[in-house]
Amino acid sequence: MLYRLLADVVLLAHLAFILFVVFGALLVLRRRWLMPVHLLAVAWGIGIEVLGAVCPLTTAENRLRLLAGDAGYSGGFVEHYVVALIYPGALTRGLQLGLAAAVLLINAMLYGWMLRRRFW
């Protein structure tokens, strides 16, 4: 029971991290000190997608699920939860690179908008 709860906590933390990677620039509007943290998170998120690596949070969640007696899953968080919701097929390399490009584009647009509005 405890391992299943911990796996769910890791799952929610992973989702929060992904949302921070994609939309964290909006938090930077109010809390400028978050900018270096956010840019590091963006670099990490893009790197995971471009390299085709598995995030350590996915590994931790799978390990906790196995300890709870549940089955883990193959692939990464995005493929298992997010892509499965949005796209019925498997995560392809092209889609993975597209996700990385989308993260880069969204953040470039948000930071560009902030620079033009002189938020700094």
Describe this structure in words.
This is DUF2784 domain-containing protein. InterPro entries: DUF2784. The chain crosses the membrane at residues 6-29, 41-60, 95-115. Keywords: Membrane, Transmembrane, Transmembrane helix. It is a single chain. 77% of the residues lie in helices and 0% in strands. The chain has 120 residues and is mainly alpha-helical. It has helices at 2-30, 35-51, 56-67, 77-86, 93-116. The longest helix is centred in the N-terminal third of the chain and has 29 residues, at 2-30. It has one domain (2-116).
Looking at this protein, list some descriptive labels.
DUF2784 domain-containing protein; 120 residues; 5 helices; mainly alpha; 0% strand
Task: Outline the fold blueprint.
Layout (H helix, E strand, L loop, with lengths): L1 H29 L4 H17 L4 H12 L9 H10 L6 H24 L4
Helix pairs in contact: 1-2, 1-3, 1-5, 2-5
> Structural class of the secondary structure composition?
mainly alpha
Head-to-tail CA distance between termini? 47 Å
Query: What form results from the Cα inertia axes?
Result: flat
Q: Give the biggest sheet.
A: none
Summarize this, please?
By secondary structure, this protein is mostly helical. The protein is 77% helix and 0% strand. It is flat, with a radius of gyration of 16 Å.
